[in-house]
């Protein structure tokens, strides 16, 4: 009969498995002085750790990394759609400035011919929704002058972002 290693005891050997089986049989038969159980074997060797689970901070970091990856993926897909419509998509806000957090949305601006920007804005919002992130789409031709200047100054092409 093949033996299985003790999953949480890295130093378990097949001999330990046979000891465990004989100890279990002796315990069922009510015999005293039986061989120690698997846990005792591992503790005797100094292996006392159980499987480790991620901390809350590690889970939060993984979630933030995944959220940021979804935002970048949506921005890149939106940029492809913008190029197809002869427009340019710029990412601005928390994703560019390093303040991105779990509740952040994707801030993008569209620049190009005014005739197709309304449809393109809806397309970009749908792309972002398909990636699981909310998008705030600004048309630069309709933005207040100070906001448009700030976006042109600080906005980045999604391909430049990591």
Query: How would you write the strand order of the largest sheet?
Result: 1-2-3
CATH architecture of the largest domain: 2-Layer Sandwich
Q: Which class best fits the helix and strand makeup? A: mainly alpha
- Unreliable runs, pLDDT <50, ≥5 residues? none
Task: Classify the fold: give the CATH topology of the largest domain.
Answer: Beta Polymerase, domain 2
Tell me the number of strands: 3
The helicity comes to 40-55%
Give Rg in angstroms: 29 Å
Number of domains: 2
The CATH superfamily of the largest domain bears the name Beta Polymerase, domain 2
Distance between the termini: 52 Å
H/E element string? HHHEHEHEH
Plain-language structure description:
The protein has 162 residues and is mostly helical. The protein has 2 domains: 14-45, no CATH class; 56-160, Beta Polymerase, domain 2 (2-Layer Sandwich), CATH 3.30.460. Helices cover 52% and strands 10% of the residues. Helix 3 runs antiparallel to helix 5 (114-130). It is elongated, with a radius of gyration of 29 Å. It starts with 13 loop residues before the first helix and ends in an 8-residue tail after the last helix. The mean pLDDT is 81.
